[in-house]
Amino acid sequence: MTYKQIKWMILFVPTLTVGAWEYVRHQFLLSYISMNVGNWLTPVILYLVSVTLLTKLFRMLERIQMELQHERAAKAAFEAREELARELHDGIAQSLFLLSVKVDRLEHNGDQGQYRQDIYKIRKTVHEVNRYVRQAIANLRFDPTPGEMLATNESLDYKVRQMIHEIPVHVDIQWTIPDAALTPKEKIELLACIREAVVNIEKHSGASKGWITGEGDQDQWKVIVKDNGKGLTADPFQFKDRYGLNIMKERAEDMNWTLRFLSDSSYTTVEISKEGEHQ
């Protein structure tokens, strides 16, 4: 039975039931059932029909609506996944092309100062391509089947929780940013920044515990990655070999986000925030 047929049946079944009962009552049962008793029987019959037939129709209608919602959710998630794939593909392709140009220039460059600078840029590009590939594997390794999409909802919260399972440091997560508040591009860039911060917790901080919090809405949000490691003794962006941190900074600048590093004797904090529009 189609969705439209169920709706029409829900509308007409009570009307036809009452009409049929009143016709039978007035034509054949007036000599057996008084008018007062017949008036009481009308709502009772309507209730019985509603409990039996209409309840079943409503369940069918709800099931069809849930299936439609699931299909829409799966389609939206698949479209978002395709968008993520395009973004990653474009990033990898552009980075590899840039790398080839730099290698060609390096072969014909005799200036030692420029040579070292080009080597640094090539290493940075290779590092960025590697991160694009890792992110592509993490985000696109599974087929976007409706059941899996609905189970995980493909939320950034879910991806972050999956990410921290790969490191030995215990990380607590508190995430309240609605997934709909982030565009596919924002998800890519924010996940990459969080991954870099988490990798730093694992490799450089010597921390025993970390925390990730995300709060806010579509217009204004804040993500904090904190650990109880040894902290930073200087501005991390002044070192050219910190490719990951510099790429994180570039990502934040490209997205017009605010990136801050805070460090003291107890905690190191990476804060990424999107500020709301000023009125």
TrEMBL record:
Give start and end of each Histidine kinase/HSP90-like ATPase domain: 189-272
Residue ranges annotated as transmembrane are none
Any idea which GO molecular function terms this record carries?
ATP binding; phosphorelay sensor kinase activity; protein dimerization activity
Q: Which CDD domains match?
A: HATPase_UhpB-NarQ-NarX-like
Q: What is its EC number?
A: 2.7.13.3
The reaction(s) this protein catalyses: ATP + protein L-histidine = ADP + protein N-phospho-L-histidine
| Alphabetized UniProt keyword annotations | ATP-binding, Kinase, Nucleotide-binding, Phosphoprotein, Transferase, Two-component regulatory system
Task: Name the Gene3D superfamilies for this protein.
Answer: 1.20.5.1930, Histidine kinase-like ATPase, C-terminal domain
GO cellular-component term (any): membrane
State the protein's name. histidine kinase
Q: Which organism is it from?
A: Paenibacillus kribbensis
What phylogenetic lineage does the species belong to?
Bacteria, Bacillati, Bacillota, Bacilli, Bacillales
